Structures are given as C-alpha cells and as structure tokens.
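can u do me a favor
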C-alpha cells in the first residue's frame, strides 16, 4: 500500500488542447478517493496518467516515495480495473487470474495461494474452470477485480467499472467494491460520472470541471457546503434549487420573501436550497415563499413536489403521503440556505441562521 501524490499535473494534447491543468492532490495510504465530474472534465485522463497509460505533460506523480512519471505501467505497482472487464475470452477464470503472475515469474505455489484467496474473497471459486462467456456481467466484474487483487498492488485504479451493468447490479457491486477495499486497506482511485455512485463509495470526493479540481472533501461536506453553483447542481439528486435573489442592507430577497444575510455585500446573488430543506409550516423562517404546485413524483419513501416559485421551478421533497395542494407556502431551513455570487462561487456556506429571525 502507498499514498499517491499529484503535484501541479497537467496534460495537453497535440494542437495545444488542455485536458488537465494544475492538479494538486494528496491521496492518503489506504484511502478510497473518487474522481467525479461530467463527460470531458478530465477524470479518466487523470487516472490514466497515474496508471502510466497517458504521458504527463507537466508536474509530478508519486506512488509511495517513487516518482513514476517515466515508469511503465507494469513498473508502478498498481492494478487497474476497466469498464469492459478486459478478460481473455479463450482462458478460464483461473487462467485469467494467474496470467499476470506467471508473466512476472511468481512461483507456482504462490500463484495458487493468491488465486485461491482472491476466489474466496470474491466468492467466485465455483467459476474458476469456466470461460468468461459463461459468466454474467457481475461475475465477469468480480473476475476483473480478482485479477487486480492477486497482484497485491500498492494501489487500485478503477475506470468506471460498473458502467456496463444494469441499475440493480450496480448498486450491489458498488457495495461489494467498497467492502472489499476496506477489507484489503489498499489505496484506491475510482472514476465515475455517476454522482450517486461517488457519494456512496468515497472517503473523499474530487469534483472535476474542465480539467481542474472544483472541490475536494468528504461526500457530506461537498453535498452540504458546495463551493460553487456547479458543484451544487452536480452533486445531489435532485440537484440543489438555485433561485435569483438580491441582497440589500444585510437582507436577501428571494421569491417575494426576505431573510437575514448578515455581512453579505449588496448585489445580485443566487440563492441555493436542497429539496429536503423546505417545510410546509413555519419553523425558523417566519416568511414563506408562495408556491404553485405543478407536478408530483412518487418515489415510494418520499414524494417530490415541483413548484413555481417567483417565476422559477423549485423541487421540494416530503415524506410519502404528505398532502400537497395547488397553492402552498414553502418555508426554507435558513441554516441550510446558500448564497453564490456573480462569479458562481459560494459567498458563505450557511449565512442565514434560524435563530436570527
């Protein structure tokens, strides 16, 4: 196991097209870090630079105490799990697991020990003599993970490994991968565009945007305290509601309601509230937002109400069975209200306090 240190790393393709710019990131020994962001944000490029599959244009990557910029992938002591499994179709599961070890000259009895141990951990012992075509998608993904485990690497790298699985199996497999990583304690870097997958698996999230790091933090910290409107809308499902507001003399006006905003400069702002941060009865907020219900989505354990509030659409979540009428008043939780400036950056993670009204 080893820490991974990334210092001012960049990647520029031919023609001067930047893919990754100025990345600084310290991944602790044994940590599970998820790189998340929309397509084209640079997350897979960054992972491939760690793996040695993409040349680093500038900066330094260390795995443990070694600078690996010029090392071949096989020399970096990492194991990578790909989206397409990358199994040899003509080999059995046992042969797929042992192939890399044989090429490295690992003694036969050690190969047998590692393969049997990986099969036991992943519960694929019954499939060792089958070929990949005889396995389901989930079983193939376990074999791909087993091939990484037998190497006993310093770090695991996962490149969207669950993208080819159906929704139900993805839920199962993400739990299995996280449990396995905790059990082995191996430093892991995981790439996904699925923010729910990222939230449920990571020790820390790294949110990328246009080749740069937008925010790093624990899943709950990133969810509760987004540094920008981009993070606020990308992390969370449904995403944070963003409404136009105006600050004047220490108060913010949004949707015909006025709330305290101490210390916030006057001017136009964007007001952010998560769907779960609305109530239908006054709490800390005496002033409510007049709302007109336009749609309801039933999700079993909760129901989502879609409202027109001050000319904008707002989503609010409520317990299943909550009665919703056409004309209503929504009361925000002021301790969870966020303000963003004209530059789309957060002014203060929670400037409004229920006790201040």
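np, heres the sequence
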């Amino acid at each position: 196991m080893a820490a991974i240190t990334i210092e001012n790393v960049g990647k520029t393709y031919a023609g001067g097209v930047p893919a990754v710019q100025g990345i600084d990131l310290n991944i602790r020994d044994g940590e599970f870090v998820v790189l998340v962001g929309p397509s084209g944000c640079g997350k897979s490029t960054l992972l491939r630079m760690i793996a040695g599959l993409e040349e680093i244009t500038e900066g330094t990557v260390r795995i443990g105490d070694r600078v690996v910029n010029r090392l071949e992938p096989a020399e970096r002591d990492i194991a990578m799990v790909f989206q397409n499994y990358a199994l040899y179709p003509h080999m059995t599961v046992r042969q797929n697991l042992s192939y890399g070890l044989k090429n490295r000259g690992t003694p036969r009895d050690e190969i047998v020990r590692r393969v049997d141990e990986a099969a036991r951990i992943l519960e694929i012992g019954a499939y060792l003599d089958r070929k990949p075509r005889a396995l389901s998608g989930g079983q193939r993904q376990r074999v791909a993970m087993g091939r990484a485990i037998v190497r006993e690497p310093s770090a695991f790298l996962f490149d969207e490994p669950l993208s080819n699985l159906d929704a139900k199996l993805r839920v199962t497999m993400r739990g299995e991968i996280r449990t396995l990583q905790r059990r082995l304690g191996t430093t892991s870097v995981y790439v996904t565009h699925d923010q729910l997958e990222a939230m449920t698996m990571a020790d820390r999230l790294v949110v990328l945007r246009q080749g740069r790091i937008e925010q790093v933090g624990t899943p709950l910290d990133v969810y509760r305290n987004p540094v920008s409107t981009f993070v606020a809308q990308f992390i969370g499902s449904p995403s944070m509601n963003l409404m136009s507001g105006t600050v004047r003399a220490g108060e913010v006006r949004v949707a015909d309601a006025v709330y305290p905003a101490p210390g916030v400069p006057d001017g136009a702002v964007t007001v952010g509230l998560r769907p779960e941060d609305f109530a239908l009865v006054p709490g800390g907020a005496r002033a409510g937002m007049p709302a007109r219900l336009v749609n309801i989505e039933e999700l079993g354990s909760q129901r989502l109400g879609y409202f027109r509030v001050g000319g904008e659409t707002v989503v609010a979540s409520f317990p299943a069975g909550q009665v919703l009428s056409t004309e209503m008043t929504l009361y925000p939780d002021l301790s969870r209200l966020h303000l963003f400036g004209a530059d789309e950056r957060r002014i203060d993670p929670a400037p409004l306090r229920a006790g201040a009204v």
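The radius of gyration is 24 Å. hope that helps!!
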